[in-house]
Amino acid sequence: MSQTFNYQRRVEFRDTDMAGIVHFSVFFTYLEEAEHALWRSLGLSVITEFAGQKISWPRVAALCNYRQAIRFEELVDVELSIARIGEKSVTFQGKFLVEGRLVADGHVTAVCCCFDDGSSPLAVEIPQGIRDLLAPFVIKS
User: What are the tens digits of pLDDT across the range 17-69?
Assistant: First the structure.
């Protein structure tokens, strides 16, 4: 059975629109915060030195499905898992819950890139050591 990484945060006033509802774009911020927290829990970062390479994870795709509005000061639980690990990319899947009810779900795909010489990112194969750290979070089908 795969693990889920759990991240919780309270809705800040700045996250809401004039109706007091969380703006749609903020869900991507919450998903990214959960992803960064997962990386930290694994002893890494979204920008990290690994096996002598400076690696980062630019996003190439993102999607969010909204089911219910959430509001200022509500606690949002983000359940993060990995839908897919490819040769060079990872697709993170997030479920957003408030008091146990699903309010949104989505995913973001990031590509493993090397930034060694400070130039443009170069997509590289995900190092086996990173794959091994992420493996427990991959959704088993």
Answer: 999 999 999 999 999 999 999 999 999 999 988 888 889 999 999 999 999 99
Structural domains of the chain in order of their starting residue, each with its CATH number: 5-137 (3.10.129.10)
Q: In what order do the strands lie in the sheet with 53-56?
A: 47-50, 53-56, 113-114, 122-123
Cα 102 to Cα 88: distance, rounded to the nearest angstrom: 30
pTM: 0.93
DSSP string, 109-133: EEE-EE-TTSSS-EE-PPPHHHHHH
Give the CA angle between residues 67, 136, 27 to the nearest 5°. Answer: 25
pLDDT classification of 118: cutoffs 50, 70, 90: low
